[in-house]
Write a structure and sequence with these properties.
single chain; alpha+beta; six-stranded antiparallel beta barrel; 3 helices
Length: about 150
């Protein structure tokens, strides 16, 4: 972790996370946001996810969704996926962003495995599985600054 110094009121500091720690934190929460391009503009959608044993971020969606229409098993699309856990009162926590290629999963065995492990939170048919390969992984942790001890 790299300390990036003070933020805001000087009561907190920002520490940059390494790749492994960022992916571990991402895997520890059930939902995040996928950012993609729709009609040449940025679009963002909250989704639940899992991080599989290969480090891929997995989301389920509808076959007729804008994201599924962009990503296929033969051609991938660049997306960013983000998640965080920040205490709004204490103003501490972490935030992780992953940028990589999103592809629709076509292997029936993988689809079945992901469908068993990842249940959608919303009503309706979620008949597509998309994986995001984490090429660029960044993250920060917001920490309370420890009071300096005085020695006499």
């Amino acid at each position: 972790m790299i300390d990036s110094g003070d933020v805001g009121d000087g009561q907190r500091r920002v520490v940059e996370l390494g790749r492994a720690e960022a992916l571990r934190l991402l895997a520890s929460v059930p939902m995040g946001r996928v950012v993609y391009t729709r009609d040449a503009l940025p679009a963002i959608r909250p989704v639940n996810h899992l991080v599989d044993e290969h480090g891929l971020i997995v989301v389920r969606t509808r076959l007729n969704s804008a994201l599924t229409g962009l990503a296929s098993h033969t051609s991938a699309v660049v997306v960013t996926y983000g998640a965080d856990e920040i205490d709004p009162v204490r103003r501490v926590g972490w935030s992780v962003s992953v940028t990589g290629m999103a592809r629709t999963v076509s292997d029936p065995r993988r689809i079945e495995s992901y469908e068993r492990r990842l249940r959608p939170w919303v009503e309706g048919m979620m008949d597509a599985v998309i994986t995001i390969d984490p090429d660029i992984v960044t993250g920060i942790r917001l920490l309370e600054r420890q009071p300096e001890s005085t020695t006499r």
